[in-house]
Write the structure tokens for this entry.
Amino acid sequence: MLKNTGEGKEYRAFSVRNFRQIPQVENLSEEEKKNIETVGQVLPFKVNNYVVDELIDWGNYKNDPIFHLTFPQKGMLDRKDFNTMASAIDAGKNRMELREIADTIRHKLNPHPANQMEMNVPELEGEILPGVQHKYRETALFFPTAGQTCHSYCTFCFRWPQFVLLSSLSEREREILQLIAGGYSNKEIGEKLSISHRSVDTHRTNMMRKLEIHNTAGLVSFAINNGIMHGRD
Ligand code: SF4
């Protein structure tokens, strides 16, 4: 968290869960707020108090480029998908149900058009090289975990899958993913968590489906890139 910045303000982030607390948002119509909530269930939304207070002209927010850059817009979703999510919210669906609907919509958005979860992972003599991506010839990209977020998300961001996919996993799945990344087998994970190896396999399969990853190397890479790597005891 940033403290004592220029004017003594503390950094504060807003998401789909608390953006209604932003005083300036009171100027928006209820329909506009609901649009933000609907799209924000599917695509990542984070804005901070500096952007809100210093960069957006709230007297003309409808035409303000920074408002459009940071606040989800209705047109970001296909109309049918938008209506599906809006109806689910209106019907009072719970968080898990909304997440399932969101996942279905996200998968239709082709989050990994170049198979980057699997194709960009360099190996040396069969071993995955943690923290490195290899997308271009003679170029290695290093992605420190601490750098894999932004203090405000752009509505056009091509990295949106990175920001939302982790949140699609349950606590148990994250736990298992940590152990998979640590090199544990299903049997070992089952013993550690006191569940059967078949349950571990089911969780592994579910994670691969949610993340659109088709092998263990891809899961390990995802865990590394999202800071949930776990070493062996
Ligand atoms: S990665 Fe770039 S485009 Fe995406 S939210 Fe961060 S600053 Fe915006």
